[in-house]
Write a structure and sequence with these properties.
760 residues, 7-stranded mixed β-sheet, single chain, Ribosomal Protein L25, Chain P, RNA-binding, alpha/beta
RNA sequence: UGGGGGAUCGUCUAAUGGCAGGACCGCAGACUCUGAAUCUGCUUAUCUAGGUUCGAAUCCUAGUCCCCCAGCCA
């Protein structure tokens, strides 16, 4: 609980953004937040978000707030607040200051709502739910204005105050932002700000009977707290426009938060929505929120998963914007790796099979000293009793062993870990013919597990003493659902794995009565003592995860070997546009085509973009070289614009045309032009001086080029050698280095000079 | 149908015009008092089609596929 979230430097698209913000001086300190709604338990998807937000804050020496987003009193509960706090803490999240509550900001939010009304940016609507839905329109249809949209400011203010005073029934009025009912983003069609709810709030009590909506409350909460980077999941991308709108209308804010979205965690063979998890709990499909099969933080904790494992998992899956489904095997790997390092080893037999040592004295009991850590004897030992009657696991004996069987069978010898070599001489069977016990002889000179003649058995088995071992309930868990995507079609409950819990009456070594709570049962798996259900004398152990098993698995079909969907090798080509006809049908294009001898397909594309066409026409007037101008406008300039409108350019078409003319005349290489354009677009000004400043115009050639080439070859001898050994891709690398040194050189000349040197 | 996002090994994720890298999974071998762990090696990817460039996963154009949005939930 004292560990930090992650000291390791991590890099993803969010750190790129933060780096840029810090570098540009937009922020001097990073403030993030984790804002759960207290209406359910946290799950592993939240843990990704927690680790991200707290991790980012720590990485940048900033802070992270824990804030309960409690704006809807009907769903929320104080018990959830407690569990969330506990889980975040357990994961290692150290929040700045006290836990915060959105409800503490209700007064401020209300003030700002009155301000919006005063400024004519919000109004009280009195349509009912049905009407409002109908008038909102849909994806293909604009919304229409409410008949109440033009109420006077005075009336709106009066109504809002009476809403707040509790004069109206739930649902009779709402406060809405006055934006645009025809906005293509439906969220912007006069979104709701406040709704009436005569409900008791777990924190503010009965003070309020109007409660703010998420889209209004959340940006304000962030701004009030001075959050710099408000990180949420992808489904809120559409909400960002509204987030910005509310902040812009309620500002100015000292720190202006920005919202960024990442892909939430989706895991195979489980469900992640709070609604579905709640249903599993309410329908008693599981024992509770902390059932060890649940993907909740509480469930995983009870199962024996550690925060370190979850942190490792989060680091491995990374943070990005792709919709992804993470293989559950990845989580299992992180759990195993973590437990492998931190679990002492103990002996437990899950499916006991009696072994009688025929040549062992009836009453002799030996107390063997076995190390908790077989690979590190210095970490202590415990006493393990050994006598005439033992248990081994049923799965470790075969009456009819397959060819590659290495364990016990009649006539074969194995080692009992840390104890003796035993040989199976015979089996006892019940009337049904089932094996009920084994008769074995022990090599009395192999105490400690080493035979005097140095022979090595094919296998080492785990075991416990029959009389001196303890009975224990062991709970084995499998994935909760039998299909990878239970959310898919139909009711997710029908995909529940009926064998997800298996109760086993096991025998465990006596030292476990008091020993460590988290152990590896040798050759079985990692187990965690269940603190809730264990009773004195009746211990319960939860299987956190089994050991990897590369032996029994060979008999089963390989996991994760999904056949790639058979897709056609190539997509059908897009319907071809008849560019020639398009150009012929447009007098302006036709004239340009004739005058400058342009490719119709390249020219035709300008038909869709009049601003670009006008720019081109003006530029080519100056540059004369039509094809070159067109290429530069269509590719390089468009790239430098990065989606911005051509009208936002800080230079005009004529200036651009002069640069093109320089390129055509050989005064500037195309490569240099490519470097020039982004800088020019960004800074504007005079192209010639920018060329000089960037050192692009010089055009290194002749002796200077040869000299640069010699330097490069000398400084990168290793790459040269690799090229000569056949790694021809190194040509591009070396050429790149050369081109950066010999600024403005002709690429063709540089390439052939380099090639000549490399091949000599 | 409108808007907003996303496409890189089987899976997750890097590469910010210059050697497609890492991890999981899988396969093979070594080692082993856990058929575990550990160690070594190997297989496998830029959605499609054009274009620009000496050089494209990356820039341009057109397409294809996937996800999200029409709660007085968050």
């Amino acid at each position: 609980m004292t560990q930090s979230v992650s000291p390791a430097r991590r890099s993803n698209f969010l750190t790129d953004i933060i780096d840029a913000d810090l570098a540009a001086g937009r922020h001097t300190k990073v403030v993030t937040r984790f804002p759960p709604e207290p209406n359910g338990y946290l799950h592993i998807g939240h843990s990704k978000s927690i680790l991200l937000n707290f991790g980012l804050a720590e990485q940048y020496h900033g802070v992270c707030h824990l804030r309960m987003d409690d704006t809807n009193p009907v769903a929320e509960d104080i018990d959830y607040v407690r569990s969330i706090q506990h889980d975040v803490e357990w994961l290692g999240g150290k929040w700045d200051g006290e836990v915060r509550f959105a409800s503490d900001y209700f007064p401020r939010m209300y003030e700002l709502a009155e301000r919006l009304v005063q400024e004519g940016k919000a109004y009280v609507d009195s349509q009912d739910v049905e009407e409002m839905r109908k008038n909102r329109g849909d994806f293909g249809r604009h919304g229409v204005n409410s008949q109440y949209r033009e109420r006077s400011i005075a009336e709106n203010l009066d109504l809002l105050r009476r809403m707040k005073a509790g004069e109206f029934a739930d649902g009779s009025h709402v406060l809405r932002a006055k934006i645009d009912m025809t906005h293509p983003n439906i969220l912007m069609r006069d979104p709701l700000i406040y709704r009436i709810r005569h409900a008791h709030h777990h924190r503010s009590g009965d003070t309020w009977c109007i409660y703010p909506m998420y889209d209004y409350a959340h940006p304000l909460e962030d701004a009030i707290e001075g959050i710099t980077h408000s990180i949420c999941t992808l489904e809120f991308e559409t909400n960002r426009e509204l987030y910005d709108w509310f902040l812009d209308q309620t500002g100015p804010w000292q720190t202006r938060p920005r919202q960024y979205e990442f892909a939430r965690l989706a895991l195979g063979y489980t469900v992640m929505s709070k609604r579905k998890l709640l249903q599993l709990v309410q329908d008693k499909r599981v024992s509770g929120w902390d059932d060890p099969r649940m993907p909740t933080v509480a469930g995983m904790r009870r199962r024996g998963v550690t925060p370190e494992a979850l942190r490792d998992f989060a680091d491995r899956i990374g943070v990005a914007k792709n919709n992804s489904l993470v293989d559950i095997g990845k989580l299992e790997f992180s759990i195993r790796q973590d437990l492998e390092k931190q679990c002492p080893r103990a002996l437990a037999v899950l499916k006991p099979l009696t072994v009688t040592l025929t040549n062992w004295p009836d009453d002799m009991v030996q107390q063997l000293d076995l190390p908790w850590w077989p690979n590190d004897q210095s970490k202590g030992t415990r006493k393990v009793p050994f006598s005439k009657h033992l248990y081994i696991d049923r799965d470790d004996f075969s009456a009819d062993p397959p060819a590659d069987w290495r364990r016990l069978a009649v006539g074969r010898e194995v080692r009992l870990q840390g104890a003796y070599f035993v040989r199976c001489d015979g089996v006892e069977r019940n009337p049904q013919g089932e094996v009920t016990g084994l008769r074995c002889s022990v090599d009395l000179h192999s105490r400690g597990g080493e035979a005097q003649d140095g022979r090595q058995p094919a296998a080492t088995l785990h075991w416990v003493d029959a009389r001196h071992s303890l009975a224990a309930e062991v709970r084995l868990y499998d994935r909760l659902f039998s299909v990878e995507l239970p959310d898919g079609e139909g009711d997710f409950l029908q995909h529940l794995n009926s064998d997800s819990l298996q109760l086993v009456q096991a025998r465990i070594e006596p030292a476990l009565a008091e020993g460590p709570e988290r152990v590896q049962f040798v050759r079985v798996g990692y187990f965690f003592r269940d603190a809730k259900d264990s009773q004195p004398g009746a211990p319960v152990w939860n299987q956190t995860i089994s050991l990897k098993d590369s032996w029994t698995k060979t008999a089963q079909p390989a996991r994760g070997a999904k056949a790639k969907a058979a897709a056609p090798a190539t997509q059908p080509a897009a319907p071809a546009t008849d560019w020639a006809a398009l150009v012929a049908g447009n007098p302006i294009l036709q004239a340009l085509q004739t005058r400058y001898n342009l490719e119709v397909s390249a020219l035709g594309r300008l038909a869709h973009d009049p601003a670009r066409l006008a720019f081109f026409a003006a530029a080519v007037e100056v540059a004369s070289d039509g094809p070159l101008t067109l290429r530069l406008v269509q590719n390089d300039l468009a790239g430098a614009l990065a989606g911005a409108a051509i009208s936002s350019l800080p230079f005009d078409a004529k200036a651009f045309g002069r640069v093109v003319a320089d390129i055509a005349a050989g005064k500037l290489s195309p490569g240099s032009a490519k470097q020039l354009l982004p800088a020019w677009v960004k800074r504007g000004g005079d192209a010639d001086s920018l060329v000089a400043e960037l050192g692009l115009g010089a055009g290194v050639q002749g002796d200077a080029l040869s000299e640069a080439l010699a330097n490069v070859l000398h400084a990168h001898a290793a790459e040269v050698a690799r090229y000569r050994q056949g790694e021809i891709k190194l040509l591009a690398v070396l050429l790149g280095i050369l081109m950066r040194q010999a600024k403005g050189c002709d690429p063709q000349a540089a390439r052939s000079a380099l090639l000549a040197q490399l091949q000599s």
